[in-house]
Every structure is written in C-alpha cells, then in structure tokens.
UniProtKB/TrEMBL annotation:
Signal peptide: none annotated. GO terms for molecular function: zinc ion binding. It holds the Pfam family Nore1-SARAH. Keywords: Apoptosis, Cytoplasm, Cytoskeleton, Metal-binding, Microtubule, Phosphoprotein, Zinc, Zinc-finger. The keyword Glycoprotein does not apply. Residues 87-173 form the Ras-associating domain. This is Ras association domain-containing protein 5.
Length: 227
C-alpha cells in the first residue's frame, strides 16, 4: 500500500547571537566607508543600507512649505501635516538615500521611512522595495515581501553593493489602478503630461528649424558657386 504524506518544508532556524556576531565581524572587516554594523546587548544589531529611487511616475508632496530643518528631524516634526495643499513632481531618477536601520526594521517600515524623508504623502502601498542582484552579466530584480528584514539581507550579502543593492520602485500590479489616486492627483498628472507634451513639441520645432536654416544656408552657398 502506497501512502503519500505531506512533508512541510523545514524553515531555517534563526541564527544565534554568536553566529550574528561572527557575521558582523566578517562584514565590518570588508567595510571601507566607516558604515559599520553594531551588535547590541539584546542580540539585535544596527547598520546602514542604501536605497536607489527608480520611480517612473510623479509623487505627491505638500505644496508651499519650507524644506525640513535639523530641528524638524530631531523633533520628528511632520511638515506634511501642516498643510492640506498638494502638488506632484518627479523625484530625481536613481537618487540614492542612505538609511540607518535596525535588524528588526521591516521592508514596510523602510518604505514608510523613505516616503517620510522625501515628504511624500502617497499611499505606501503604491511602492515596493526590490533587491537588485547581478549574475552572469545580467541584472535581476526581486520584489521583497513587506515582512522581510533588509539589514539581514545586507549582512548576508556583505557591504558590496554590486552583489546586492536595494531599489524603491512603483508597486507594479499590471495596469495602473487609476482609482487608487485622488482627483487632485489625477489633475496634477494631466498638468504634467500637458507640460511634457508642449516641451516635446518645442523640441521638434527647434530641431526642424535648425535643419531648415542649415538647408537654406547650403542652398545660398550653392547659388553663389559657378555652374
């Protein structure tokens, strides 16, 4: 009689404090920029990660407020709550933000922390954190679950960002779910698209105007030559 049993996959056991200590010592020995990891007495540890921002769509931020000061950062003042006015703009493509986090900091908390630093008021669910890896000359992206711990991944991979890096991107779920955006956000998107369209039209006009001028100059020079 054949009996089929369902065998659950054994989850890897969490590393011991001693194992973490050894990994941190190995990690710190490779660090060249003073961004070391530090082991705490309770077994947790802290360190730094760098996140590349590769956002293709505009984000929503408060309008008409001053940039955050050192006082705001120390007192954790949320300037976004001081005004109801909103505007949209594009964050610099591939900007890099450095975060000091703990081993207990989740992907969800990293996303929320990044949005807070840039005063982005969009729903955090619109964004996702990816790990970028290079293998056999290819760049591979893998979306991280919200409960993952980025600092542990950094510890395992080592400090070399060519081996592993973190990227914040839009949370692509196929087609853009426009219902998730508010009316002011959609209106701002239309304004941005209208401006981009006008810029493109001007670029084409300038291109053909330069071509026309060169062509007219060539014809003028040709008429002045005999034969």
């Amino acid at each position: 009689q054949n009996v089929t049993q369902t065998v659950e996959e054994e989850k890897p056991k969490p590393p011991t404090v001693q194992e973490i200590k050894q990994k941190i010592e190995k990690y710190n020995a490779k660090v060249t920029n003073c961004l070391l990891m530090k082991l705490n007495d309770d077994g947790t540890y802290t360190g730094f990660i760098k996140v590349h921002l590769k956002l293709r769509r505009p984000v929503t931020v408060p309008a008409g407020i001053r940039p955050p000061s050192i006082y705001d950062a120390l007192k954790e003042v949320n300037l976004a709550e001081m005004t109801d006015k909103r505007t949209s703009f594009y964050l610099p493509l591939d900007a890099i933000k450095q975060l000091h986090i703990s081993s207990t900091t989740t992907v969800s908390e990293v996303i929320q922390g990044l949005l807070k630093k840039f005063m982005v008021v969009d729903n955090p669910q619109k964004f996702a954190l990816f790990k970028e890896m290079r293998k056999d000359g290819q760049v591979l992206f893998q979306k991280l679950p919200l409960t993952e711990y980025p600092l542990y991944l950094r510890l395992l991979a080592g400090p070399d960002t060519d081996v592993l890096s973190f990227v914040l991107k839009e949370n692509e779920t196929g087609e853009v779910e426009w219902d998730a955006f508010s009316i002011p956000e959609l209106q701002n998107f239309l304004m941005i698209l209208d401006k981009e369209e006008k810029d493109k039209i001007q670029q084409v006009h300038r291109k053909y105007e330069r071509f026309k001028q060169r062509l007219q100059q060539t014809l003028k020079e040709a008429r002045g030559k005999p034969g």
